[in-house]
Write a structure and sequence with these properties.
Helix content: 25-40%
Strand content: 25-35%
Structural class: alpha/beta
Distance between the termini: 20 Å
Number of strands: 18
Shape: globular
Number of helices: 12
């Protein structure tokens, strides 16, 4: 059979504009892989990029970053992977030489290589990612499950910063989205109790309850801060994780944490967004406030093994499947809260 020379791909053209087009097949260089996408997943970052742009993406650009696929070509020097192998790869790799990498903060690398293009028939995996964060998918693990590696790696990194202890109370604001449901599962695995799931959408709270959330709260109907205090003997939560990515969620999360507690803002806001915080609370209540960004090669590896070992329920994250040509429909569905994630089939 003749080798393909072109592929269908979705190109991000700017806020609110995607273009489905035919493109040349990526050329494979030394140390690289060419992978045929079997399944790609939509992500909250994809939705935000589609709706409002992204500070690190300059359109026109290939789009999408969560995928699993099959190796179709290997570059010179690649020994661990062969054509026909199913693989999952990270969407980035650090340089391992800059100031931040030398201090173990690989997610903040000054020369972080980012690879986009999962919403396409094929994707080229750069050598640096092949070497550091590409994994062979074992028999019995679905493409959809493996493709959830990247968001889980980010969640693991966020929880590494928080160091949740057994018996601590945890509130997750935006608990019904894919990131929130992963935070929920990891917090429960750490022995947190109670784990309080907060979301605006009933169907998402039902999923959180199925996964083991102690209590679910819909803030549109309930007095959120008062309920959290009632559930934590009047103190507020030991740990609060914001994963909704909205200004209202950022601000409300601040009022839920106890004195001496930890608050993490996980969901990114649009560039230039400001919030107002009570500095007296920060100072006299000795709050620990965390921003969090992306993942590291170590958390990618840990995420891969947690999924492969069946320690994380990824099935509840996938609401359905659509063809690549219907990507815009999938993103609009996520934005409207009608689904959690969609599997995209090229």
């Amino acid at each position: 059979m003749a080798k393909a020379t072109s592929m269908q791909a979705t190109v991000y053209m700017g806020p609110g504009e995607l273009e489905y087009r035919s493109m040349p097949l990526p050329a494979v260089g030394t140390g690289e892989l060419l992978v045929r996408i079997r399944k790609a997943l939509t992500c909250g970052t994809d939705v935000k990029t589609y709706k409002r742009g992204h500070p690190k993406y300059t359109p026109p650009t290939l789009f999408g970053h969560e995928f699993a696929g099959e190796v179709v070509e290997v570059g010179q020097g690649v020994e661990r992977f062969k054509p026909g192998m199913r693989v999952v790869a990270a969407n980035s790799a650090p340089c391992n030489a800059c100031y931040y990498c030398k201090r173990g903060q690989h997610n903040l690398c000054e020369d972080l290589l980012v690879n986009l293009g999962a919403f396409a028939e094929y994707i080229r995996i750069p050598s640096r990612i092949v070497q550091q964060s590409t994994f062979r998918i074992p028999e019995g693990l679905s493409d959809e499950a493996a493709a959830a590696m990247e968001p889980l790696a980010c969640v693991i990194h966020g929880q590494d910063l928080l160091q949740i202890q057994a018996g601590e109370s945890v509130v997750i604001v935006g608990a019904g989205g894919p990131i929130g449901l992963m935070h929920l599962q990891l917090a429960l695995r750490q022995g947190a109790h109670p784990v309080i799931a907060v979301d605006l959408i009933d169907s998402r709270l039902e999923v959180a309850a199925q996964l083991g959330a102690t209590v679910t709260i819909q803030p549109a109907q309930d007095e959120l801060e008062a309920m959290v205090k009632r559930l934590t003997e009047g103190r507020g939560a030991d740990v609060v994780i914001e994963s909704a990515g909205s200004l209202a969620a950022w601000e409300s999360a601040f009022g839920l944490v106890r004195k001496g507690g930890r608050l993490q803002w996980f969901g990114g806001l649009a560039g230039g967004t400001d919030i107002t915080l009570d500095t007296v609370r920060i100072h006299y209540d000795e709050l620990q406030l965390y921003g969090v960004y992306h993942a590291t090669p170590l958390t990618f590896e840990r995420a891969f093994h947690m999924i492969a070992d069946g320690l994380i329920n990824t099935g509840v994250l996938i609401s359905g499947e659509l063809p690549l040509a219907n990507l815009e429909e999938a993103l609009e569905s996520m934005a409207a809260g009608e689904c959690i994630k969609m599997a995209i089939q090229p």
